[in-house]
Every structure is written in C-alpha cells, then in structure tokens.
Specification:
Keywords: Membrane, Transmembrane, Transmembrane helix. By secondary structure, this protein is α+β, with helices and mostly antiparallel strands. The chain has a single domain, classed as Immunoglobulin-like, CATH 2.60.40. The protein has two helices and 14 strands. The strands form three sheets. Strands 1, 3, 4, 8, 9 and 11 form a six-stranded antiparallel sheet that branches. Strands 2, 5, 10, 12, 13 and 14 form a six-stranded mixed sheet that branches. Strands 6-7 form a two-stranded antiparallel sheet.
Length: 224
C-alpha cells in the first residue's frame, strides 16, 4: 500500500512538474512576442530631381533679325533692333525662365548663306553678331566683339543664370557690286544645361537640347 502511494505521489509530482514547465514556456513565448513588437526597422527614402529649364526670346528677336534696305559696298550695317532698347541697348535677347532650376548655355548657328530666290548669295562670313550676358547699353554688346555666323552651333552666352538674359546685336557687310534682291537665311538658337557642379560647359553639338527657337530670318533689300 505504501508503495502504491509512493508511485501515485511520483506520478502527481511529474504531472505537476509538466504543468509548471508548460506555463513557463508560454510565459517565454509571450515575452518573445512583446520583444518582437518593440523592435524597429529602417529604410531609405530617395528621389532624384532632374535638371529642367525653359528659354524664350524677346518680342523683337522673335520678330526676326531685320536689316531693311542696304546699299552695296556697306560695312557693319546694324540690324533694326540693335539700339532701340532702354539706354540705347539691344532689344534682342534670350531669357532663362524663372521656373528653371539650372543655369543655361546658349548656342547659335545659321542654316546657310543669305540668298535670293534667284540664288544670288551674300556669304555667311558677312553676317556677324556679338552678345553680352545680363546687361545691354549703347556700348554693349560691342561691335569690337563681333563674330561671324557659321553653319555649326557655337557658344553664344555661357552660364546664364535663372531669370537672366543674353543680349545680341547683329551686323552685315554687303560687298560692292552685290546684286539687288531680297536675301534671307534662317538663324537657330539652342539652350543646353550647364554642369553646375564642375562648371564644365557641355558642347553645343554633342547633347540633345531641350529647346530650339523658331527660325529667325535675316531680311534685307539691296538697292541699286
């Protein structure tokens, strides 16, 4: 009888021990869940803002680069709007719009020589321009800085900042004996972004540009 009581006691003790161990295990599981809820995870938020800009012409440059009537054997004839701005400055300019987020370089080229419908030609080397960034008056852009137009894009104003302009003047030489007629060609302007981090100017030809002006027309009539 005593032996049976001992066995029963051992059985009850083992049973109680098992119950206690199960309770302890549940407590550990609960504690693990609480710890899990308290942990933190992180991730990175990233965005890249692209460079963007827009440029526009002054009304008089949009009208065209006009020379009116010129006699043969004339040198450095002024375009109509070379000196009709404030303080006798040029009223022909290209502006970097205020909604841009980068500075801009401007480029310029001509499509061809000045020609009549009869194929009379004034060579492209006779068409010249000068430009000045941000300001213009009676002396700037200066004739002394004139550059002949070419059929390839070249820089004509660099690092024009947001809200600022590059002003232009144009001149024309008409050789002696030039045939009379109406001569025309097309002038293109192009804006490209500048690398502000290194100030390395990007080439006019090698980049896809974001803006090209409407063609500008040189027009003149040669008097006999």
């Amino acid at each position: 009888m005593i032996k049976e009581e001992k066995l029963l006691f051992i059985f009850i003790a083992l049973f109680l021990f098992s119950i206690v161990m199960l309770l302890v295990q549940n407590i550990k599981i609960s504690e693990t869940k609480i710890i899990g809820y308290a942990t933190e995870q992180t991730t990175v938020s990233n965005v890249t803002i692209s460079k963007a800009f827009s440029i526009d012409m002054s009304a008089n440059l949009s009208e065209g680069i006009l020379f009116g009537s010129i006699s043969p054997d004339s040198t450095n004839e002024n375009a109509t709007h070379n000196y009709d701005g404030a303080s006798s400055g040029s009223s022909m300019y290209i502006n970097v719009s205020a909604d841009s987020n980068t500075a801009v370089d401007f480029c310029i080229k001509s499509n061809d020589d000045l020609k009549t419908s009869a194929e009379d030609i004034i060579g492209i080397g006779n068409e010249t321009y000068a430009n000045n960034v941000t300001t213009t008056d009676a002396t700037s852009p200066a004739l002394a800085d004139e550059t002949s137009l070419t059929t390839a894009y070249v820089k004509a104003g660099t690092n024009i900042t947001i809200g600022n302009q590059s002003y232009f003047r144009f001149w024309l030489d008409v050789p002696a004996g030039q045939a009379s007629g109406d001569y025309n060609n097309t002038i293109y302007f192009k804006g490209i972004e500048i690398d502000a981090s290194s100030f390395v100017k990007k080439g006019c030809v090698d980049l896809l540009y974001l803006f090209k002006s409407k063609p500008r027309i040189f027009f003149l009539a040669i008097n006999l």
